[in-house]
Amino acid sequence: PPRWRRSAKGAVIALVMRLMMTLTINPPMHLQPGDIFAVISDGILEARDPDGKLYGVERAIAVLRERHTQVCSDIIAAVREDVQLFAAGHPPDDDQTAIIIRRRMT
Question: DSSP letter at 27?
Fold first, then answer.
């Protein structure tokens, strides 16, 4: 099931570990204007640094919280940059995919 929470600033942050052909969120999640919904693949969450430490959910959430007011493409770029910084040249073991969806303000 997806992990999601509302940040202190109001943005909904959701992480889906494994995306199936049909995504069902139960109970339904209602995005407020300006909220983001993030789909982050396990290739990002399970990225490793040179010592073998996992990138993890909490680090991904921290980047999303920090950047949630930016345009979606910039949020994705920030996640990509943070994963690369964390991995410090350690090659990825899996594909690394992020999808960010924002509910319009109006």
Answer: S
